[in-house]
Amino acid sequence: MGVVSIMLDNFKSLLRNFFYSMKRYPLASLSAFIVTILSIYLVENSALSKDKVDFLSNIALTSTLAFFIFIALGLISSRTILSLIGVILSLGYFFSLPNSIDMVSDKHIILIFISFIFILTVPFLEKNVHNEKFWSWIYGVFLALLSSFIFGGILFGGLAGAISASTQLFGFSVDGKYYAEVAFVVFGLFSTHYFIAQLPHNPHTMQSKEFEYRPIETFFTNYILLPLSIIYAFILIGYGVKIVITSTVPNGMIVWLSLAFATLSFITYMFLRLSNHRFKKLLLITIAMQMLLLFASLYLRIDEYGWSANRYMTGVAGVWFFIISIYLLLKPNYSYRNIFLFLASLLLISQYGGPLSASSISKFSQGTRLATLLQENKNLSNDTNIDIRCKISGAIGYLDTHHEKKTLEKIIPSIVKSYDENQSKDKEFSSFATQALGFSFVNDYQCSEMSRKNSNIEALVPYSIRVDSQFDYSVNIKGYDWMDSVDVYSDPNLDYSSPLGGTDELNITIKNPNILIIKREQNLLGEFNLTTFAKDVLLKVNSVDTIPLKEFVFTGDSDKIAIRIYFDSLDVYKVDGNVSGLSGKLLWKEK
User: Fold this and answer.
1) pTM of this prediction?
2) 484 and 406, same structural domain?
3) What is the secondary structure of 136-205 as a DSSP string?
């Protein structure tokens, strides 16, 4: 009975904390419930239309942001007017979301981060705040967040293990979706309400005395954070010396290393409680110097490739680290609160700063860059300098992925119009656009490999051959029963094969190297080697990239199927003749 009594007492305590959290932050609690219920509903109803999935997903995304907004406002006051402001902000965000969930950007994560910063700062908006009291509050919030995730992970692991063990012991099966639903309940309800329950009820009642760490926290600071910061500092200082001595261009990796070092050093600075503060000042000086190296590296990449949202946000992080380092070094009566409010302000400008926002600056930069490249480089083809093709491909790909087609309509209006009128949505616009400009799209991997290996791009980019009358020809169907369109992609250089399309009856793929495989369901109908055909076509086209239809036909026969392909296009690597992709009309007859 003693064990049962203890378990009941613990369960009652858990329920009290749960209901206390709901009462303390009712709208935040409601937001957590909405996210959990919608997540489970979407998992249970996988056959929903895309429009409905997008609509419900946007509600869930709004609720995740609302959870943090309502906590931040609740820390200011429990007055109804603040709750109403939170509802208005949440509705405004919901209506600002794109219709397609696929287009939701990193803005959502950034806004949640901003809301979390407000949770840290809004209880201390008065003019004079003791740094020890503020740090005690921040430390408590982070411990609450960390413990909610850790305990949630332990609870989920235990429940998932129990389900898995039951299936093994009792011989029944459980659909994998139920594991996801358990995770939604644990992290969506338990972890969120545990986090709320751990927040101090009134941050202003916290003592202003010097903050004291427990032994394990002191050990973590002195023997983990501090040594790691020193190691990073030596690596980056050594690299900076190398740049000065050798006059080399900073490596792109230096950007991420610099940010990692600055983050680690700043956390170490906040945790250190040494009586001698010179080392803390040395950390700040090192951060400031490292940010100068980051700015130099970032400038070179912007000069070469233009602004992107990632480069913009990297710059924002660098500016924040540099300015707060100088601020903490030079101002005797500095305030920890101010450095977090400054970060929130920079992030808000990055998202809602109008012409100064990340979206506006990257769109203007990439659009201007693309227009200039196209104006300076006429008669583009697969023989055009690879650097030019990489830059054009990168600009088109970025604008297509991160911005609306209106931006590209101003630069390449005829291509956008042709894509909307004639092309199926299965084909990516970036590939279609570069093809219309005269060359095959070059992705980031191919460009980076070319830069790294300094090798011939023909080994990385397939040569695209097209029929010279692609949209206007007749074919002889005598001897065949069916005609279907076929569109298959494969990349032998990446050891990767992915069918983009096939027919309603057949499954068609390319197995490297150059084996066209045709199946009906799981039954193999035939394998056809395209090697000789592809090399013959390469010999015929020479310097042009079109070929007459009569020379662009492949015929094959197996025990189970006879085929003939009238090609619209064939993508072949010149170096080895490997086929990267094909499209056209497939005639076939099953035997």
Assistant:
1) 0.72
2) no
3) HHHHHHHHHHHHHHHHHHHHHHHHHHHHHHHHHHH-----THHHHHHHHHIIIIIIHHHHHHHS-S-GGG
The 3-state secondary structure of 219-284, one letter per residue: HHHHHHHHHHHHHHHHHHHHHHHHHHHHCCCCCCHHHHHHHHHHHHHHHHHHHCCCCCCHHHHHHH
Residues 166 and 30 both lie in one domain = yes
Q: Based on the fold, state whether residues 30 and 121 are members of the same structural domain.
A: yes
The domain tally of the chain equals 4
Round to whole Å and give the CA distance between 238 and 219: 28
523 DSSP assignment: E
pLDDT digits (tens, 9 = 90+) for 531-557: 888 888 887 775 556 778 778 899 999
Contact 484, 520 (CB under 8 A): no
Contact present, 155 and 189 (Cβ < 8 Å) = no
Please enumerate in sequence order all residues whose Cβ is within 8 A of that of 527, keeping only pairs 6 or more positions apart, or say none: 511, 515, 516, 517, 518, 558
303, two tokens: 């000069």
What pLDDT does 452 receive?
58
Which of these three, 205, 228, 253, is where a domain ends? 205
pLDDT score recorded for residue 496: 43
pLDDT of residue 61: 93
Residues 260 and 144 in one domain: no
Cα dihedral 569, 572, 578, 581 sign: negative
In what helix (H) or strand (E) does residue 535 lie, and over which residues does it extend? helix 531-541
Q: For the chain, list residues with pLDDT below 70.
A: 1-11, 13-14, 17, 100-105, 127, 202, 204-214, 247-252, 273-278, 423-427, 449-462, 469-473, 491-504, 512, 542-545, 575-576
584 shares its domain with 481: yes
Structure tokens belonging to residue 379 = 């008669």
Q: What is the pLDDT of residue 421?
A: 78
β-strand partners of 465: 570
Domain boundary among 407, 442, 459: 459
Q: How far apart are CA 77 and CA 71, in angstroms?
A: 10
Range of the domain at 237: 215-352
Q: Is residue 231 in some structural domain?
A: yes
Which residue pairs from 162-167 have beta carbons closer than 8 angstroms and sit at least 24 positions apart in sequence?
none
Based on the fold, state whether residues 105 and 10 are members of the same structural domain.
yes
Let me know if residue 210 belongs to a domain. Answer: no
Question: 34 and 94: one domain?
Answer: yes
- Residue 13 resides in a domain: yes
**What Cα–Cα distance (Å) separates residue 484 from each residue in 194, 479, 515, 564?**
58, 15, 19, 11
Over residues 209-251, the pLDDT tens digits come to 455 666 777 777 777 887 888 888 888 888 778 777 776 666 6
User: In this structure, is residue 223 part of a structural domain?
Assistant: yes
Does one domain contain both 157 and 228? no
Pairing state between β 561-572 and 482-491: unpaired
